[in-house]
Every structure is written in structure tokens, then in C-alpha cells.
């Protein structure tokens, strides 16, 4: 998948968007063993952020997951 980064002010949440797949898994880190969200919706809303944070997304097809991208 492809992901688009966003800039926000501290104390707000961010809406991250991916493209290029039919199903997505969002992760808090590159090596996380559990995903935060799996959905056909390409958007992911973070919690309130106080500092710079990187999230990762993977495409899922037929139960197989792609490499994660930031």
C-alpha cells in the first residue's frame, strides 16, 4: 500500500489514509505483533497525539500481509 503523512498540532488526533489495497492493517510500530485496526476503510484515526508518532500500514489479501509502510 501507499500511505500519506499528515501534520497536526499537539493535543489533536490525526486521520491517516492508505491506498492501493482492498483491506488494510494499521500498526503502532514496524515490528508490532498485534494490529490496531483491520478494515476495508483506508482511513485510520489515531488517538490524541502529544508528539511525533509514526504508524505503519500493511495491505491484506487472501489472508497474506504485505510489507508494512510508514
Main attributes of the structure:
single chain; 70 residues; mainly beta; four-stranded antiparallel sheet; 0% helix
Brief digest:
Helix content is 0%, strand content 37%. It is an all-beta fold and 70 residues long. Strand 6 (56-61) and strand 7 (64-65) form a beta hairpin.
What would your notes on this structure say?
This protein has strands at 2-4, 15-19, 24-27, 37-39, 43-45, 56-61, 64-65. It is an all-beta fold. The chain is 0% helix and 37% strand. 20% of the residues are buried. The protein contains no helices and 7 strands. The strands form 2 sheets. Strands 4-3-6-7 form a 4-stranded antiparallel sheet, with no helix packed on it. It has a 3-stranded antiparallel sheet with strand order 1-2-5, with no helix packed on it. The model has no long low-confidence stretch (mean pLDDT 95).
Explain the layout of strands and helices.
Elements: E1 2-4, E2 15-19, E3 24-27, E4 37-39, E5 43-45, E6 56-61, E7 64-65
Strand order of the largest sheet: 4-3-6-7
Calculate Rg over CA atoms.
Answer: 12 Å
Topology as H/E string? EEEEEEE
Largest sheet: 4 strands, antiparallel
Number of helices: 0
Mean pLDDT: 95
What would the principal axes of the Cα set say about the shape? globular
Amino acid at each position: 500500500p501507499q500511505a500519506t503523512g499528515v501534520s497536526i498540532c499537539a493535543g489533536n488526533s490525526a486521520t491517516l489514509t492508505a491506498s492501493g489495497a482492498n483491506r488494510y492493517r494499521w500498526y503502532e510500530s514496524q515490528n508490532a505483533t498485534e494490529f490496531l485496526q483491520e478494515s476495508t476503510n483506508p482511513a485510520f484515526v489515531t488517538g490524541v497525539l502529544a508528539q511525533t508518532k509514526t504508524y505503519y500500514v500493511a495491505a491484506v489479501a487472501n489472508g497474506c500481509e504485505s510489507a508494512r509502510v510508514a
